[in-house]
Amino acid sequence: MSAAPGTSPVPTRPTVTEREARQVAEAAREQDWRKPSFAKELFLGRFRLDLIHPHPLPADEAAQRGEEFLAKLRDFCETKIDGALIEREARIPDEVINGLKELGALGMKIDTKYGGLGLTQVYYNRALALVGSASPAIGALLSAHQSIGVPQPLKIFGTREQQEKFLPRCARTDISAFLLTEPDVGSDPARLATTAVPDGDHYVLDGVKLWTTNGVVADLLVVMARVPKSEGHRGGITAFVVEAGSEGITVENRNAFMGLRGLENGVTRFHRVRVPAAHRIGEEGQGLKIALTTLNTGRLSLPAMCVGAGKWCLKIAREWSAAREQWGKPVALHEAVGSKISFIAATTFALEAVLDLSSQMADEDRNDIRIEAALAKLYGSEMACLMADELVQIRGGRGFETADSLRARGERAVPAEQMLRDLRINRIFEGSTEIMHLLIAREAVDAHLSVAGDLIDPEKSLGDKARAGANAGVFYAKWLPRLVAGPGQLPGAYGDFKHGIDLSPHLRYVERTSRKLARSTFYAMSRWQGKMETKQGFLGRIVDIGAELFAMSAACVRAELLRARGEHGREAYQLADAFCRQSRIRVEELFGRLWTNTDDLDRKVVKGVLSGTYTWLEQGVVDPSGDGPWIADAAPGPSTKENVHRPIR
């Protein structure tokens, strides 16, 4: 059944229960593990160092091609990009974007047969770190275009015809954007309201999309919309490639933010927009799976720019702390400041280790890196914010002062406060920290749920529970004994990581702690069973411990790689040692908070806050917020606003 030509039924926002929302998310996730995963094994108490050591490396030809492009990009960043101008005017100059197009930067990840540069994930990430250091807004533009925009989903799910039609455009001329979020839909896609109604050999799109990064200047869009189920149509959330200049598309607003002021992010309305069925990516109902699969590697772009931020923070901290003197010596030599510098240096080393390892594993395609990429995004975004905050503290009042103000009074224009503002969004972009905790936790306990899921499901029959209990008994009878002892208890284990500085104790710690982590998870499953998914505080700490263990492993493996290649090996070992010692302190604190915390009390306080019990505590202030609804009306229909879409030519 199709709608009458030129019309479409009025979309209604789906009303879904919590269980239905979880079912939608569960159906979208990749169910099978066809390849090994270092991080998944880590959460199960199995330290598979063989999966990451020796550290994988790019092929010589790929490295040469990548280095040649980085040299050109560095020259462009140094001579053509004025980050201060972008910050002041809140816009990337058109000539800069056109210059990036000519350089081939739009096609870094696109195959050479489509006119792209064909860079590996490793060198794509290094390019993002480089250009993001010149202007985080440009880094975000290039990342949104290639990591989650049209090129990546077409590379994985597109037909040959779609690839031949769109990828050459994306490689050289056309900017793309990814449109999933709506005014009332964030991390709960089951409530997606934008519709795509079949109409012959087209679909008719209606709806409103929010926070469309690149949407203001985009030429091509990846749009997620709900196809109604009907005769001949399975329906469900579906992905489409849409021409941004199509009739009925209006960019209604260019949004402004506390950071990334050059970001071309907007609100996009679709009113009876006709999209050829040939532009549908994959099958109907595959949209969320396409989005999640795209993000498996797409998420690596954010930690890439976090690594770049860490390197810059280290440079400024070093230069400033050596020049600034207080009480007769450089501030770096005061322990209170020195500890911050050590944290920035060690963490930057570890973040780069996590990023390069995850990226190289993505390039080799030997391992399933869905957890590794998610951990890199989670850990990178959190730690980069901490490093930037410490840099502001090291700089003192000058850290809080804007670069323009510093320049105006004759000092070096260091944009430390801008870095802090720009990095803050990474804890929200492409999955907030809270959502990343739940996503990673779901994958981390997948083995448990696959054998015990029916056992803890209240809606399953007694027969189903009995069968699940038998299966679980077999699994745990084999698994639990392996969590008792391992190489981490042998003094000589991992001895090939001892060269002057001894990193082997840290790897033994990771092995022991991974087993402790798995035991803790099993105990929680036994204790809470079906309520486990509501224990978000506990799950978040489990994930954070896993992230630290992954970072420690990556740091040690990278240090050994650099030593073996004769590239600052002694210094790398020192940084890895410092990071691991800092990380182990954080891990022990997290373990302590698994069982000693205020989670239950916090829930009681929250109920009191929501019920108005503590409104007396809010007295004595005025609210400077403006009037208006908490969430803007996103009812479908024609736009009443000026179209601010401005494609760059």
From TrEMBL:
Cofactor(s) demanded: FAD
Keyword Endoplasmic reticulum listed: no
Biased composition (Basic and acidic residues): 16-30
UniProt xrefs under Pfam families: Acyl-CoA_dh_1, Acyl-CoA_dh_M, Acyl-CoA_dh_N
Region (Disordered): 1-30, 627-649
Keywords noted in UniProt: FAD, Flavoprotein, Oxidoreductase
Reactions catalysed, as given in the entry: a 2,3-saturated acyl-CoA + A = a 2,3-dehydroacyl-CoA + AH2
Domain Acyl-CoA dehydrogenase/oxidase N-terminal: 67-172
GO molecular function: acyl-CoA dehydrogenase activity; flavin adenine dinucleotide binding
Residues in Acyl-CoA dehydrogenase/oxidase C-terminal domain copies: 285-443
Domain Acyl-CoA oxidase/dehydrogenase middle intervals: 177-273
GO-annotated cellular components: cytoplasm
GO biological process: fatty acid beta-oxidation using acyl-CoA dehydrogenase
Entry similarity comment: Belongs to the acyl-CoA dehydrogenase family.
Name the record gives this protein: Acyl-CoA dehydrogenase
